[in-house]
Please model this.
Amino acid sequence: MSDNNKRPESMERITTPELAQAFIDEQVKALREQIGDGNVLLALSGGVDSSVVAALLIKAVGKQLTCIHVNHGLMRKGESEQVIEVFRNQLGANLIYIDATDRFLDKLAGVSDPEQKRKIIGGEFIEVFDEEAAKLENIGFLGQGTIYPDILESDGIKAHHNVGGLPEEVKLELVEPVKLLFKDEVRVVGHELGLPDSMVYRQPFPGPGLGVRCVGAITRDRLAALRESDAILREEFEKAGLAGKVWQYFTVVPDFKSTGIKDGKRAWEWPAIIRAVNTKDAMTATIEHVDWEVLDKITKRITSEVPGINRVLYDLTPKPTGTIEFE
Ligand code: XMP
Model:
C-alpha cells in the first residue's frame, strides 16, 4: 500500500460536526490545489460515497465538476429523482442525467443467470458512462468515491461483486477525497455538507440494484411490482422507527406465481419476500425480529396496493446459509 493510501495513525476519527467541518475545509483547499482550473468528471450513483464526493467537489470547484447519473432502470423508487433534486436543483451542479432503462432491460431480457446479469449490468454501465464522457471536452480528472475499507480489502464485498471499473483507455487523474475515511465518517461529513439524511444514512444498496432482487430473468412488470413493494416496506420501516436500526431491508420478487384470491376472483400472482437483516461486515447476518403488527400492516398494504402480488413472505434465514441478497 502506498503512503498516500495509508491512514496516518495520528488521524482523529471524524465523529463530530466540528471535526467534519475541519475535514471539509482541508479537503476543499486540497481539491482546489490538485484540480486548479481543470475539469472533473464523476459517476454519481446517489450512494453515500459518490454523493459526498460530489458535494465536496461542488464546494471546491463548482462548475468545473460534471456529474453523470446513469439510471439503469434498476434504481429504487424515487432514487434518481432525488439525485436530480439534490444535486442539480439544490446544489446547482452540472449534472447529466441519462435514463438508460430501455437499454439495460433490453440487454437483460431473458437472462436468468445471476453472474451473467451482473456482468451485463456492470458492462453496460461502463459503456453508457464512456459514451457520455467521450462527448465532453477538456476533462482531466476523475472523481471517485473510494473509501478506506475499499483500500484495506481490495477483495472485499464491493470488489468481489461488482464487475469492471472504468475502462483502461480513460487516462484521467483520480480525485479521491474520502479515500482515508471509514463509512461512519463519510456519513458525518455528508451530514455536515448539508446532504439529506435519507441519502447520508441510507442502507447499503448493491451496484446491480433491484436487478439481483428480481430473481431470474427480469421482466418489466415484475420489476415494477418489486419497486413498489420495496417502497412500501421502506415507508413502513421508517414509520415504525426501524429505518435507522436495521442494517438492510428490502423485498424480493421471485419468478414464480401461486394461486390467491383478490376481489372475490382467483389471482395467479407473485409473492413478495421481505428480507430484514443485521450485520457488522456483511459476511454473516442475523434476522431482524420485526413486530407482528408492522409485518401485518406491510402485508396488507403490499397485497392491496401492488399489482401482481398476492402473498407476502418473511425470510427467516440468517447468513449463512442464506446470502443477504437472493442472487
Ligand atoms: P450477499 O448477498 O453476498 O451480500 O450476502 C453482502 C452485501 O453485499 C451487497 N451486495 C452487493 N453490492 N454489488 C454491490 O455493490 C453487488 O453485486 C452486490 N451483491 C451483494 C449486499 O447488498 C449486502 O450488503
